[in-house]
Amino acid sequence: MKLLFATLLFMFLVLGSSFVRLSFAEPVAPHPKPAAPATIPPPSPAAHSPPSFCDKKCGERCKKAGVKDRCLKYCGICCRDCKCVPSGTYGNKSECRCYRDKVNSKGKPKCP
């Protein structure tokens, strides 16, 4: 019985040590691909252009909004699509039918 126990213990130690060595092995990194020539994208035209029609109109429309960044985002989307923004900070959507009729995926008004 003692011989069987000693043999099993020895086998577990030998097998265990081989798994330990495998777990500490460093992974081999794949060979890097040749690098493509570096190209710098041209600057976007909006980066240096003066504020656009939509920026001015949406800034005025959203100046009293509770969540100003969200208001500016959606107003900008609507302004680019519709080419108009209603006057004032709220309401007056009848001035711009496209702006008034845009809805999100839930059927709620998209434009602030």
TrEMBL record:
<comment type="similarity">
    <text>Belongs to the GASA family.</text>
</comment>
<dbReference type="Pfam" id="PF02704">
    <property type="entry name" value="GASA"/>
</dbReference>
<protein>
    <recommendedName>
        <fullName>Peamaclein-like</fullName>
    </recommendedName>
</protein>
<feature type="region of interest" description="Disordered">
    <location>
        <begin position="30"/>
        <end position="52"/>
    </location>
</feature>
<keyword id="KW-0939">Gibberellin signaling pathway</keyword>
<dbReference type="InterPro" id="IPR003854">
    <property type="entry name" value="GASA"/>
</dbReference>
<feature type="signal peptide">
    <location>
        <begin position="1"/>
        <end position="25"/>
    </location>
</feature>
<feature type="compositionally biased region" description="Pro residues">
    <location>
        <begin position="30"/>
        <end position="45"/>
    </location>
</feature>
<keyword id="KW-0732">Signal</keyword>
